[in-house]
Every structure is written in C-alpha cells, then in structure tokens.
C-alpha cells in the first residue's frame, strides 16, 4: 500500500482544512470585508470536496463571525480590522453563546456578585442577541433593496419606447 498523501496525514476532517484556508485568506486580506465569498461549487472545485463539506467549512466561518450569509444571495466577508481581529461588530460563535446561556441557567440564584453582575451578564447576552438579529435583518433588507432597484431599472428600460 502506498503512503498517504501529505494532506491525508492530518486527521482533521476536510471541512476544517477548507475553513482554515478560507479563514487565512480573509484574515490576510485576500478576500476583503463585504466581498462575496466563492460559491459552494467553486469551493468544491478548489478543495476537491463534496457539497456538504464545502457548506460545513462555511458554517464554521459563519459561527466564528467571519462571514455572514444572506439567503438567496450568498455568503459575504464580515467586517474585521486590519490586524485580523474581528471588529466591534464581531458576533461570538453560536456554540459559545449557547454554552454561556446554558451555564447561566444552571447557576443557582444568588451566585452573582453583590452588585448584581449576574443580572448584568443576562442583559448583555440579550442585548447581543438583539443587536445580532438587527444587524442580520439590516443586511438582508439592504440586499433586497439593491435587488429591487435593479428590477425597477430593468422595468424602466423595458418600458421605454423603441425608435
């Protein structure tokens, strides 16, 4: 039996390899904030993986807050600063927020600090969730607005009398 190729010696799943490379491209500025990510088909060809593997790689990056997806439009790079660190718009990964909420719900009453820090943490999580939902909704509405503007322009052009 021949030895495994160099890339097969790392036992991590292929979607993690793909996510690592895409993450590196984003953080090094090869894919800029606001720029559309390559399509699933392009990722499949680039990494030689299946459709679901490419989707899983994007899901990892989405959970990390590096990209966001607008249904029917595609995935886009989220804003981050030049040092590669996410900006103030960074959203903690879903698994982190879920873990944090679970730990807070398991905490016994009165475990918070005497100054009410337990209540402040709950309010912070709620505020984060609300702001994240609003940000996603604004992005979706913005994309819809651009699409509607294009459609209106096409209709205007189609209705103009031809000479």
Automatic annotation (TrEMBL):
Key words, A-Z: Coiled coil, DNA-binding, Transcription, Transcription regulation
SUPFAM superfamilies: Winged helix' DNA-binding domain
InterPro entries: Bact_HTH_transcr_reg (IPR050679), Tscrpt_reg_HTH_GntR (IPR000524), WH-like_DNA-bd_sf (IPR036388), WH_DNA-bd_sf (IPR036390)
Molecular function (Gene Ontology), one example: DNA-binding transcription factor activity
Sequence intervals crossing the membrane: none
Entries under CDD domains matching the protein: WHTH_GntR
Listed name of the protein: HTH gntR-type domain-containing protein
Species assigned in the record: Streptomyces lacrimifluminis
Lineage of the organism: Bacteria, Bacillati, Actinomycetota, Actinomycetes, Kitasatosporales
